[in-house]
Specification:
The radius of gyration is 53 Å and the shape is elongated. The protein contains 30 helices and 36 strands. The chain is an alpha/beta fold and 987 residues long. The strands form 10 sheets. A 9-stranded mixed sheet has the order 7-6-8-9-10-14-15-16-17, with helices on both faces. A 5-stranded parallel sheet has the order 2-1-3-4-5, sandwiched between helices. A 5-stranded mixed sheet has the order 27-26-28-24-29, with helices on both faces. The chain crosses the membrane at residues 593-611, 623-641, 653-673, 837-858.
């Protein structure tokens, strides 16, 4: 690369100024406290070399800006040579002999897994800026990760997968602590986005090209085209070179790499970068600052001093983390040295000659330095340096696209706001972006601008293997014909046409072949559940036919949206009612309606008798007369022939409502009976499923259908469920009714039932409710990417009416019926239709009776109280109350009684008592003498004199008088003695 002279000059000036500041500080301060710090890196690698340069630059910058600090970090660099043993040996040597206060490194997670145990034993903090495996935490409190661990970036990767609606991915990771650490977190993050992991490719760290090529070919034969790669720098270079070689970096493929591999892209070979064109990657966001630009120039100066390494234009995230790590450690050392000046180099002595290799000295400075590092917080090159639980607090992530010779930033992802795009006119400012804006700025593999679907069909010439479930006897839906000469199989029918139309509506080509689900001998290979299981085993890529969606089946396969209606109905033979039955007149109403009507007839008659008995002469008489009136009066309202005089208004209200009920009942009964006698009516042999089960009738279903399971769930015994394969078989079984070797009803799905009835609707019909089920749908293996697209195609064809056109083409949308035109189902009127009517009349009748009883008790409370207070038996009290109620009420309606020509006062009814020594003036009223002696002495004008009426046991020295109407005063009640007009009554 070309480095401008101006840039080199600036870097040299910075380096020179730093050196001067450092030397001045050392000369001016003789009481400098030294902290020994070990550095363990793979110095032969690009990352190790650049990291050491960054540590030295940070060391120089820190003390040039803080010349008055009383502490200095002394670096002891060791080369781990890229393996665990050398890294561990370097750590042992630094801890045991150099007695360092802290160790920066090691470089790899595998090396850190051993090194942290040494730090725990010596109580020396191990600080790593490049070991990013989340599995290293929380192993020991003396291990600090000054880097963002790999689990923080899985959210950004999962967000990319979710944004582009890829529902299946393949994870490629290396077999190491670094590779294995991210997999559980990545799996969980993808699960939250409803994306399934189709395959996990585990590649050894030292894998040869042949092994990588074999794995790539295996993944190439899969449908999934989304690959998430989490491997080291060297392994990633091999992987992408081989992927490009076999054509897996072409259009339609998606490659997403993690931050470590993306960060080292600038240091990769140009051939590797060329192979990675179109790759997406994530990388922690580094704010663009002036200090970062100066740091980049310093890196260039250091790289120019080492001709074996290529200067990088882009600052690596590991460079920045190494720089901030040195600053954090220097700040922590200053804090410890200020507060504990005696702490440095005060280690307990250990027997260095001991044969125990791991007999390490215990550091007193280490725990203090650990606490100081964990509490350190400052604004570094990577942003705010802040440790949480021993690792760097996560920040936002950049979404990068490999284009040309480098990377292009397309978006920024934050956990709270999702994707945002960078403003080009202002740095570090972002704005929300839509999926379209996000995807439009990405160049995918093969230099394509179109968003890949994430999967491909076919794969290397493979076609979908579609199983066809054929039900014999219904060729309009599905038909299979085999050519006897060529042995070729031809498929036709409604389901075949629907499937072809749906596949043709997809935005891409999907080749397929139909396979009849049968045995080699041509017989059926099993039930529908057997076919579902074969798809589950992926012996077939799909299945079509009259396959109903059920909960149990959905546990094994995925269904598309239904393309045909669902539901189960019951087919029964047609029978007609016998109109010559002697009990036909009872059939218009059901038994419960008859019984309820009769009960209300009696209740209404009883209520009218209670309301009228005390005031109307029509409801009086001997007990037999009362009982006859109770039953007679309500029935007489049928023809409105009652002649009994109604006196009470409460009775009138009861009768009016009851006559309305009678009118409705009469009209309904007449209409129903007329219909039965004039129209031929269908009558199912057994209308209720419960009755079929109770009487032990046999029922039928199609062999292998889920309908048989529904019948078992209803309660039918296994022996009572008979299975058939052809329509002619269950048609013949239905024709025998409930006889042996026959069925009383056949249960089937709605489409086939309609087609069956289109041929035999003069003999069979559907009765009862439709049992709801989901419709027919296409079947795919679990997680198949075709399910969503096929479902969308089904919706599209339904909306534009193409589904209806296919139905009409195959004459199944509205099957015609050649049976009789007028078949009416026989239905008797039930009580349900009259519940409201009976509730109204019952409420009004009971309310009127209650009002009457309350009024009666209130008016006669004295007499009733006297009866209740008597010392007679309970039965005697009841008889006295009944006798009192049986008396006629002479005061409730006197005007009506006066006009009643049938009114006669018996001797026992006394209205008023007059003393025997008094005379009664009848000048303004008409009186009738009650319970008087049979001798009438005389009458004179309007006065009646009653002299010297003796007192005896019969009359009790009183005379009872009662008024009579003018109409009844003319004829005498008793014969007169004598001819003169003045008469006297004597005892």
């Amino acid at each position: 690369m070309n480095i401008s002279f101006h840039s080199i000059l600036v870097g040299l000036l910075i380096t020179m100024s730093s050196s001067l500041c450092c030397s001045g500080a050392s000369g001016g301060n003789n009481s400098v406290i030294s902290f020994q710090v070990g550095v363990v890196l793979d110095l032969d690698t690009e990352l190790g070399h650049r990291a050491l340069n960054c540590l030295r630059i940070a060391h120089s910058d820190f003390y040039s800006r803080h010349p008055n600090y009383t502490t200095r970090l002394v670096l002891h660099v060791r080369d781990s040579k890229g393996n665990v043993i050398d890294a561990t040996a370097s750590g042992l040597e630094l801890l045991k002999f150099v007695k360092v206060d802290a160790v920066i490194g090691p470089q790899k997670s595998t090396q850190a897994n051993f090194m942290m145990n040494l730090g725990e034993r010596a109580q020396v903090p191990i600080v790593s800026f490049s070991a990013t495996s989340p599995s290293l935490q929380p192993r020991t409190k003396f291990f600090i990760q000054t880097a963002q661990t790999d689990d923080t970036e899985v959210g950004a990767i999962a967000a990319i997968v979710k944004t582009f609606q890829w529902n299946r991915v393949v994870i490629i990771y290396e077999d190491s602590d670094y590779g294995n650490g991210i997999v559980p977190y990545l799996s969980n993050a993808l699960q939250y986005t409803n994306a399934r992991i189709a395959y996990k490719s585990l590649i050894p760290v030292s894998a040869h090209e042949d092994f990588i090529l074999k794995e790539l070919y295996k993944m190439m034969t899969m449908q999934t085209r989304v690959f998430i790669v989490h491997v080291s720098h060297s392994l990633g270079a091999k992987l992408f070179l081989k992927a490009m070689e076999i054509g897996m970096m072409s259009e339609g493929y998606v490659w997403i790499v993690t931050s470590d591999l993306m960060d080292l892209l600038p240091s990769m070979n140009l051939h590797v970068v060329e192979a990675m064109q179109g790759v997406l990657g994530v990388k922690p966001l580094i704010p663009k600052t002036r200090n970062l630009e100066l740091f980049r120039l310093q890196n260039i100066i250091f790289d120019l001093a080492n001709p074996g390494y290529k200067p990088a234009d882009i600052v690596s995230i590991f460079d920045v983390w190494a720089y901030d790590t040195m600053w954090a450690l220097a700040m922590a050392a200053e804090q410890v040295g200020t507060h504990y000046p005696e702490a440095s180099n005060q280690d307990t002595t250990a027997d260095l000659n001991s044969s125990d290799l791991f007999n390490l000295p215990i550091s007193k400075t280490g725990p203090k330095l650990l606490r100081a590092i964990l509490m350190t917080r400052f604004k570094g090159l990577s942003g705010i340096f802040h440790l949480v639980d021993g690792k760097l607090y996560p920040t936002s992530y950049k979404i990068l696209n490999v284009v040309g010779n480098g990377e292009k930033e397309v978006a920024v992802w934050t956990k709270s706001d999702g994707f945002k795009r960078v403003r080009h006119n202002t740095s570090d400012k972002f704005y929300s972006t839509s999926t379209e804006d996000f995807s439009s700025s990405i160049i995918w593999p093969g230099k394509s601008r179109a968003v890949p679907r994430g999967w491909e069909v076919p794969v290397r010439g493979k076609k979908l293997k579609v199983a066809v479930a054929v039900r014999p006897g219904f060729e309009k839906y599905l038909n299979v014909m085999r050519d006897s000469r060529t042995d070729a199989v031809h498929f036709s029918g409604y389901y075949i046409e629907v499937f072809k139309s749906v596949i043709a509506a997809l935005p891409y080509a999907v080749p397929y072949d139909f396979f009849h689900f049968e045995k080699p001998d041509g017989s059926c290979a099993g039930s529908y559940n057997d076919l579902i299981y074969q798809v589950f085993l992926q012996n077939y890529d799909a299945a079509i036919g009259d396959i109903t969606i059920t909960g149990n089946r959905s546990n094994y396969v995925d269904f598309t949206l239904p393309f045909a209606e669902g539901g189960v109905v019951r087919i029964v033979p047609i029978t007609y009612e016998d109109d010559n039955d002697m009990w036909t007149f009872l059939k218009p109403m059901k038994k419960e309606l008859w019984l309820t009507s009769i009960a209300f007839f009696f209740v209404t008659g009883l209520a009218v008798w209670i309301l009228e008995h005390r005031i109307s002469s029509s409801f009086r008489g001997p007990p037999s007369h009362h009982l006859g009136m109770i039953f007679y009066f309500p029935f007489s309202t049928f023809v409105f022939a009652h002649r009994e005089r109604i006196v009470s208004n409460l009775t009138r209200l009861v009768v009016v409502v009851w006559m309305f009920v009678v009118l409705i009942l009469n009209s309904t009964y007449t209409a129903s009976l007329s219909s039965r006698l004039t129209v031929q009516r269908l009558r199912p042999a057994i209308a209720d499923v419960k009755e079929l089960i109770r009487k032990g009738h046999s029922v039928g279903c199609y062999q292998g259908s889920f309908v048989c399971d529904i019948l078992r769930g209803m309660g039918f015994e296994e022996l009572k469920i008979k299975m058939y394969r052809l329509p002619e078989e269950y048609k013949e079984a239905l024709s025998y009714g409930s006889k042996s070797d026959s069925i009383s009803a056949f249960f089937d799905v709605v489409p086939y039932s309609k087609l069956f009835l289109s041929k035999y609707c003069d003999k069979y019909t559907i009765v009862g409710p439709t049992y709801h089920t989901d419709g027919f749908a296409f079947v795919f293996p679990k997680g198949s990417p075709l399910v969503a697209d096929v479902s969308r195609a089904v919706i599209k064809l339904t909306e534009i009416g193409e589904m209806l056109d296919i139905q009409q083409e195959w004459s199944i949308s509205d099957p015609t019926c050649n049976g009789p035109d007028s078949i009416v189902t026989s239905v008797s009127v039930s009580l349900q239709s009259f519940k409201g009517l009976f509730a109204i009349t019952g409420t009004i009748t009971s309310s009127c009776v209650l009002i009457f009883i309350v009024s009666y008790v209130y008016k006669n409370r004295s007499s009733l109280q006297q009866i209740l207070n008597s010392r007679s038996t309970v039965w005697s009290k009841i008889k006295e109350i009944a006798r009192h109620f049986d008396q006629r009420d002479l005061s409730s309606h006197p005007s009506i009684m006066a006009r009643d020509p049938q009114f006669k006062y018996p001797k026992a009814e006394v209205a008023e008592t007059v003393s025997s020594s008094q005379s009664v003036d009848l000048s303004n009223s008409n009186l009738m003498v009650l319970s008087l002696p049979m001798n009438i002495l005389s009458t004179h004008s309007n006065n009646i004199a009653v002299p010297n009426i003796p007192t005896d046991s019969t009359f009790s020295s009183s005379t009872a008088l009662a008024p009579v109407s003018s109409e009844e005063s003319t004829p005498p009640l008793m014969p007169l003695t004598g001819d003169n007009s003045n008469a006297q009554l004597e005892s």
